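Batch manifest line 273
LIGAND: zinc ion
JOB: complex structure
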Amino acid sequence: MKEYVSHSNVHSHTTFSDGRDTAEEMVRAALALGFHTLGFSEHSPASYDDCGILRDREREYHAEVRRLKEKYAGQIDLLLGIEHDWFSPPSRPEYEYSIESVHYLKKPDGYISVDWTRPKLEAAIEAHYGGDPYALCRDYFRTVCESIEGTRSEIIGHIELVMKFNEARDLFDDSDPRYLGPALECAELAARSGRLVEINTGAIARGYRTAPYPGEAMLRRVRECGGRIILTSDCHNSDFLDCGFGEAAALARACGFRTAWEYRGNQPAEYQL
Ligand SMILES: [Zn+2]
Ligand SMILES: [Zn+2]
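JOB STATUS: finished
ARTIFACT:
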């Protein structure tokens, strides 16, 4: 029997934030793939983040998703969601679900991005962590833990984002105890939170990585601690709506998962991997 690869993605960005395509173009791509569910999760508004949806466009975003829900009713379930950055103001109550993500670290003089560009990440390591990448990683995982403890979101976004520019392991070694200690603690907390832990393939479509994250070490710990996973493509371009789902499912199986979760309509449902 052919293995089921999820036909549902609830992590996607459109022209309302930093995506390439309109919401309706994403719906058409999802239909062409035979998806039953598509969730929109624009970046939350934040003063320090150019990717966030502008506060005064949020209502327009809501109205457009509602229009599409009606237009495509019976063909696909569409969800109004938000990817909430941990340091941005609390989200409006209209959202049907949310993803809690850490993209920034807070410093006395402002916020530093961990996923904007590699040169910016390297500059931040020099400027704020005395050139020690493990100190930045420790700060990152501490912040992710804080977000897991503080959030009400259903989904924990890309918990190993700090590996986005480090697939070649030339910035730091992810098997070093200075990295693994805080990373595994974070994986454990994410699993025990009961929230869905994302396996995110977004960096593959964008050419930064060839494998999804979190990687094996964190995922195995999530599994050992009874965590639940969801595959998402963090899609910024309708050509890549299910990008890497096969690899993500294979990675999950290799880490011992037998099931994963996906949204069917507005509820998460479990399926066999
Ligand atoms: Zn994100
Ligand atoms: Zn995203």
